[in-house]
Amino acid sequence: MGIIADQPLQQHLLQNVIVEEGYEVGVNTHPEKVNAALLRSDTISVWVVNLVDSDAWDDVLEQILDHSCAPVFFGDGKAPDRNSAEFPSWRRRIITKLKEFSDPIAEVKSAPVLDLDALINANRVDPSDVIKLPARFRYANPSQVDHVCVVAASLGGPSPVKEFFDRIPADLPAAFLYAQHIDEGCIDALVASVGRHTELKMELVSEGCQLENGKILVVPVSREIQFQANHTVEILENGWSGPYGPSIDHLFKNVVARYKNMTSAIVFSGMGSDGTLGATSIVEAGGTVWAQDRQSAIEPSMPDSVSEAGYVSFRGSPEQLARKFVEQLLTDTTSLEVTAT
């Protein structure tokens, strides 16, 4: 479910009612943040719109009607206080209407098929093309994580992701999470194929593992993960929200909850719009979101979606993204050192 409401209390009440009934909320936002790309997200099965001051949002209402790919349920104005006599009947109306549109917790869609042959035959980046770090940035303390980059991909993603990682030097002061829409039975092959040439360490998330500089953790397909104060990864019993596993939207929000403005994301090739909703939380926290360009992406709709929503500050090929990432990270690290002195 997606919620659009013009008052924080209305957002809070609607989310509580919807979640209590067994639905999942993918986005809960103010109408001023609504745009066409957000409304076209295939993560949302129903939009719930409740505007107390509807006259002030005529343009937004028109945009919702013009661009939403999902059914739209319009509320009836200001929700009553939770302790009032009117609240139970208001709640019943909301739930009855929602059930006309969608049942709680839709089934997860099939993951994109992994082309193992293409990965196995993918060219290795020449070792001379691995980006060189200045001496003072090498050998970063693995446990002192100051930046987490989430690499996200779906259909057509593994090959460009491999090229990106193949160019990243081992001693870069950053930890990586790799979220790939994939059938769970292919995850070991993904780790072996994408990680076989990179200087970075690459492994599937396991209970008690930690984010470290110079290491890529591959996100599990069927179980949600969260992050503790000491960079330990906690694997939860429940699955991801959203139609695919792992949910990129959900993962972005979980990373931001722990790492705030130390979070960045790069969205590679893929179908659909997973990642567009979660990119909001990264940008609002002060992080950055980049995307693969259309020219190099096998399927550009996923990077296009997050770009059209206005969250992407840079697009490029896998090589350009790798060079820009290293350059930006070293610039940010230098700025922090100057500030500290």
TrEMBL record:
Its EC number is 3.1.1.61. It holds the Pfam family CheB_methylest. One of its GO terms (cellular component) is cytoplasm. GO terms for molecular function: phosphorelay response regulator activity; protein-glutamate methylesterase activity. It catalyses: [protein]-L-glutamate 5-O-methyl ester + H2O = L-glutamyl-[protein] + methanol + H(+). Residues 142-313 form the CheB-type methylesterase domain. Keywords: Chemotaxis, Hydrolase. It is an enzyme of class 3 (hydrolase). GO terms for biological process: chemotaxis. SUPFAM superfamilies: Methylesterase CheB, C-terminal domain (SSF52738). The active site is at residues 154, 181, 274. It comes from the Bacteria. InterPro entries: CheB_C (IPR035909), Sig_transdc_resp-reg_Me-estase (IPR000673). This is protein-glutamate methylesterase. It comes from Gynuella sunshinyii YC6258.
